[in-house]
Amino acid sequence: MKRVAIDPGHGGSDVGAVSPSNLHEADMTLDVCKRIQSLLESQVDVVMTRSDDSYVSLGERADICNTAKCDVFVSYHFNAATTMLANGWEIFTTKKDNNSDKLATCIGNFHAALFPNQHARQDWSDGDLDKEANFSVIRRANCPAVLMEGEFIHNALGESLIRNPANREKMAIAVANGVLKYLGLKLLDDSVDFNLSVTQRLDRIENHLDLPT
Asked: What is the pTM of this model?
């Protein structure tokens, strides 16, 4: 079984970016990542860098991935900027072409398909959609690694998108399908219900009814 590390950004004393109505990035990334976990765990071994509101350092996150010898590492975040006009999603890899770029393309394509009206902040200068940055958490991972920014949480428009559970479910589906495609595994069924909560989805998995009837 392939092993996938899912990394909910921030946590504990590090709440991350904050929305106009005090929605914390750390809470929203954990929600999305738990959804990713529930979507993937029937086909891969999922390793979570955190499963609750606890602080985990950047080095520890990469160490968790490397110790478990994961095949893929996905760190999920929500963005913030100095201008209130900033919006859209983007996905980062480290510099130079490698398999991380292929993973980013898989995830990015699924996200774009599920959010056709969301601004895509892409960099095609090197022939693919991902941006490149020297982020520690993905640089230290010993496997293909990406950092996803699902939207800007610091303004009302982004907060509205992120606050909707159906959108967070679609964000999770995009990552899950991107990971599955990259690993050459079976994609999720098209009939996955975007409106299922994490609890409802886990209940269905426990009852061997992951898909709506």
From this structure: 0.89
Structurally, the chain folds into a number of domains equal to: 1
For tokens 């990334």, the residue is 29
Q: Find the DSSP H helices in the chain.
A: 25-40, 58-67, 99-114, 136-139, 156-163, 165-183, 198-206
CATH code, domain with 190: 3.40.630.40
As a whole number of angstroms, the distance between CA 152 and CA 179 comes to 23
Domain of residue 62 covers 3-206
* Distance between CA atoms of residues 129 and 125, nearest Å: 8
Q: Which residue shows structure tokens 């990394």?
A: 7
pLDDT band at 213 (very low <50, low <70, confident <90, very high): very low
Closest CA to 188 of 86, 199, 204: 204
Q: Is 152 left (phi over 0), alpha (psi -120 to 50) or beta?
A: beta
pLDDT-derived band at 116, boundaries 50, 70, 90: very high
Alpha carbon of residue 188 to chain centroid: 16
Asked if residue 103 belongs to a domain, the reply is yes
Q: Is 213 among the domain residues?
A: no
pLDDT tens digit sequence for 179-196: 999 999 999 986 455 555
CA dist 2 and 39 (Å) reads 14
| Residue whose structure tokens are 């999770």 | 172
Average of pLDDT values for 118-127?
A: 92
